[in-house]
Design goal:
About 65% of the residues lie in helices and about 0% in strands. By secondary structure, the protein is an all-alpha fold.
């Protein structure tokens, strides 16, 4: 069972990365373009408004890059920092805990993107198309180690 789960791990991580990236990009699209219900009850954020518009750009671009698996670690680091700023600047002054101050999405996105910084994109990432590693080297890294066979004497 463990071997099966270990083989599926890069694909589960890729699915996680794609879903989180798309959800994050939707937040940015809603704020910039006023789609999907718009920003905070409708409409869009005026261009150049600090910090909301810049956060929305980070959400749209960072979420798209993470979903595609292109520059995942850097995009995730910038996105994580953006959500940490959102939590401590916007939410935390109202109350200590995220449940009380409405900052749960910011806190969760911050930690999710920080996790992606350390885990990387997993399988199915566009980063793999631009790396200099050979195809056989990638296959060896993705393959789970096989148990050693007993040696007959």
């Amino acid at each position: 069972m463990h071997a099966l789960l270990n083989r599926a791990q890069p694909y589960a991580l890729a699915l996680f990365r794609i879903v989180v990236g798309l959800l994050f990009a939707c937040h940015g699209a809603a704020s910039i373009f006023g789609v999907l219900g718009g920003a905070m009850g409708g409409g869009s954020i005026p261009a150049g408004t600090w910090p909301g518009w810049y956060a929305a750009v980070i959400q749209l671009v960072g979420g798209s890059l993470v979903a595609l698996g292109l520059g995942t670690r850097i995009a995730a680091l910038v996105s994580s920092g953006s959500m940490a700023y959102a939590y401590f600047d916007v939410h935390q002054p109202h109350a200590l805990f995220p449940l009380q101050n409405g900052g749960e999405p910011s806190a969760v996105y911050c930690w999710v993107f920080l996790l992606l910084v350390f885990t990387g994109p997993g399988a199915l990432a566009l980063d793999r198309l631009f790396t200099s590693r050979s195809t056989t080297q990638r296959a060896e890294e993705d393959r789970a180690p096989e148990p050693a066979s007993p040696v007959a004497v």
